Amino acid sequence: MEPNADKLRGLRITSLDDEDDDETELPNQPLPASTVTVAAAPSGYDDEDEDEEAEVMLGFLEKPKHPGLLLRHLFPSKAGGIPAWLDPVNLPTGNSSCCGFCGEPLHFVLQIYAPIESNAAAFHRTLFMFMCPSMACLHRDQHEQWTRNQGNPRRSVRVFRCQLPRTNVFYSSEPPSRNNSDKPLCAGEKHRTVNVPTAETKFGGAALCHWCGTWKGDKICGGCKKSRYCSEKHQALHWRSGHKNDCLQIINSSEASSSVLPAVGKVPARTSWPEYQIAIDDEVDLDSDGCDEDSSKSLVMQKHGKPDDTMQSWMDQFEADADNQCWAYFQERISRAPEQVLRYCRDPNVKPLWALSAGRPSNPDIPSCSYCKGPLCYEFQIMPQLLYYFGVRNEPNSLDWATIVVYTCQETCDQNISYKEEFAWVQLYPTSISRP
């Protein structure tokens, strides 16, 4: 199947058609559990799957009207930038914040606010995804995931679940009014030690790395004793970018000036992907809007951003094998809303939308919850169109994927751990798929 694989690999999504003049503003709201509606899947799409489709919620990216809308006490769903940690004090640390292959701190991808109404312990619930920007590490991750049940494999994609009851030390029990008067409680003060840095006091949480603004800054500059870092690499980057001079000014001044010491959260643009708000809509609602096939946008793009007019011609010549049918079905589903970057449906009977038959997990490949040992269920997946919004170029060694699927604890267990790591399955394009 190598010639076919090469053709499929060339279909990487890299750009969008010009946006329509009439834009629909989508609300920023929690992602609800979806219901299941019966529909026929193409023959041979999945021998193991039932012939049913999920009514999924789709995520679309839009620039926030105001950065304040993405602050943690407003419980945002967002992509890029820095995370709005739900628990701002007890952040993941150590190996959890780093790529298991290169050892570098992971980049924030997105977070989804997805509370569970039936679970009092998950009145507030957010899922956070992080990823190493190296495609070489993602290749190794895709290979390593097959050995999930053979110990604790290294990963370059990590997903954390954080949840809180309605009454907690960080947020009011009343919903935010969203009229610019909302503020978090004076959170986490009883968790702090005596010598708390200014940044921690100001933002009501753990002091974050002054370079990436993402991970806990548990390393302190030996000179000024003010700047904090999550890793030696970020300390070195900050030093070379100008802290070498700022450090001397801080030491020589009677007190640190805010103009010299950057505020936590003001992150160098090159260290994070562009920030967007995630707006959601129901896939069924988009289907009902309808548009004729000739005028609908084409999802598949050439490397220069033009629609692939030859796709159907060579697709018709393919043998009717499982990968081709799976790809065609994947293509048809996402063409209903080509700009989608996220698909969400938390239902234990629902399966993800796979791009290909190859590289999908079987039931034994999905581990149990690391905390309660109960089953995991599919909750959401990210689509390759996210790479376009993040400005990732379509080059041989650029970050790329077919889809990344996230499985979370079916019971959304509460084990007195602030950030519980869930399981992500990486599906790459055919030329990248390998199984030991």
Automatic annotation (TrEMBL):
Residues 16-25 have a biased composition (Acidic residues). The keyword Lipid biosynthesis does not apply. InterPro entries: PDCD2_C (IPR007320), Znf_MYND (IPR002893). Keywords: Metal-binding, Zinc, Zinc-finger. It holds the Pfam family PDCD2_C. GO terms for molecular function: zinc ion binding. Residues 1-50 are annotated as: Disordered. The keyword Kinase does not apply. GO terms for cellular component: cytoplasm. Gene3D superfamilies: 6.10.140.2220. SUPFAM superfamilies: HIT/MYND zinc finger-like. Residues 209-247 form the MYND-type domain. This is MYND-type domain-containing protein. It comes from Aegilops tauschii subsp. strangulata. The lineage of its organism: Eukaryota, Viridiplantae, Streptophyta, Embryophyta, Tracheophyta.
